[in-house]
Write a structure and sequence with these properties.
The chain has helices spanning about 30-45, 55-75, 90-115, 115-125, 125-140, 145-160, 170-185, 190-220, 230-260, 260-265, 270-285, 290-305; strands spanning about 5, 80-85. The protein is mostly helical. A two-stranded parallel sheet has the order 1-2.
Amino acid sequence: MSISTPTPSAPSAPPAPSAPSASSAVPLRDLAPGIIGMALVGSSVTVSRSLVDAPLFAAQAVRYVAAAVILVLLARAARVPLSRPRGREWLWLAGIAAGGLVLFNVAVVRGVAHAEPAVVAVAVASVPVLMGVVGPLLEKRRPSRRVLLAAPVVVVGAVLVEGTGRTDAAGVGWAVLALACEAAFTLLAVPVLGRHGAWGVSVHAVWMGAVMLAVLSVCTERPSALAELTVRQWGAVGYLAVLVTAVAFLLWYRTVAAVGSGRAGLLTGIAPLAAACAGALSGGGVPRPAVWLGLAVVVSGLALGLRGGDGSSGA
């Protein structure tokens, strides 16, 4: 991989990613990558159930090593330059890897052992409430009033889709951790997206996450951990590596850079919808009427937050 080294005279603070103003409508072409990426993330909650009994760190390390290789090969094929992190960028990227990748996947895998995937998916869908406020502040903008109004609507719809489901205190705790990590996955990327773009942030966060998981596996699991994976678990690792990591990361960060973290955060409401569909396709049954009602509420919330109009700027 060819990584360019910036010259010392380069500016110390990267520019903030461009985003449409609060009063402008968001083009579908900018939203589509994020919609697809979040649908893949939602499906991962169901797929992760296959890894409950697997060596956690070893399986995830293989996932991210494979994803890093795929991303680098795709970047080279697309002739996308990758810049070496510098200064505080190492901390932002390491934070994405530690929180948005390592801890998030631990929370999801351990969470579905104590709760239905619905519970974890609903927690992920609650991210708009955090990102609608914190994201614009990191981008040195005032939060959009329309986004702030739309975020609770999206969350209510997600809860209607999934319900609370079976859980215990540990399941709730893991779900809350997944919520914090999902927010960190996007918010910590805001300061570095300007210089590195979706490709650079994805590549660096993934290889750092792979290193962290490999170290955790060596320190806490048996050397033969990978040999214990079943064919089904290998299939789950492959799905997570290719679609949920390599593909979804690029799609998601592309939308964050295009529309801003506040508006992009509303798209996390798609995750529980995708989880519901994945559960149905995997034998979980036809969605209940509450699911269809929740779908309508989520769509309404997304329409409210993503359309343009007057009065959308925050006070």
